Amino acid sequence: MALGPEEESRLAELAERTRAEDPHFALGLGAGEPRPPAEYRRRRRSGLRIALGLTGFAVAVALFAAGAPGGGFVAALGAVLALATIGDGFSGPGD
After folding, report:
1. Predicted local distance difference test score (pLDDT) of residue 86
2. What is the pLDDT of residues 67-86, one digit of tens each?
3. What pLDDT is attached to residue 10?
4. What is the percentage of the chain residues whose pLDDT exceeds 90?
5. pLDDT surpasses 70 at 4
6. Measured between alpha carbons, how far is 91 from 55 in angstroms, rounded to an integer?
7. Which residues are CB-neighbours of 37 under 8 A, at least 6 positions away?
8. Is the confidence at residue 9, as pLDDT, over 90?
9. Which end of the chain has fewer CB within 10 Å, C or N?
């Protein structure tokens, strides 16, 4: 099925915009080698943030359980930071 002139024009505009916004993804499409778009490449870093947040929370709870001075404050701060980090990790690619 052939495309009409309007569809060809829209397709060319989309291709140019994709090349300008995400050249890594566009190169993959042109070469036939699938590469994730920028929104999904950035998401990989959130796993590290989640791990660090949960580790901080675990350390804070351990300090609280051990009766360390200021442990309650550290545990509360760790809980808030862990929840903020985890919530950030679950946001969608366009958020």
Report:
1. 66
2. 777 767 777 777 777 777 66
3. 93
4. 11
5. yes
6. 20
7. 22, 25, 93
8. yes
9. N
Q: What is the DSSP string of 24-90?
A: HHHHHHHHT-----HHHHHHHHHHHHHHHHHHHHHHHHHHHHHT-TTHHHHHHHHHHHHHHHHHHHT
Domain range summary for the chain, segments of one domain joined by +:
1-35, 42-90
Closest by CA to 70, choosing from 57, 80, 60, is 60
- Rounded to whole angstroms, what are the CA distances from 39 to 24, 49, 66? 12, 16, 42
Token output for 35: 């590469």
Q: What are phi and psi of 3, to 5 degrees?
A: -90, 145
Q: What's the pLDDT at 42?
A: 62
Of 87, 66, 91, 63, nearest to 77 by C-alpha is 63
Residue with tokens 């490449």: 41
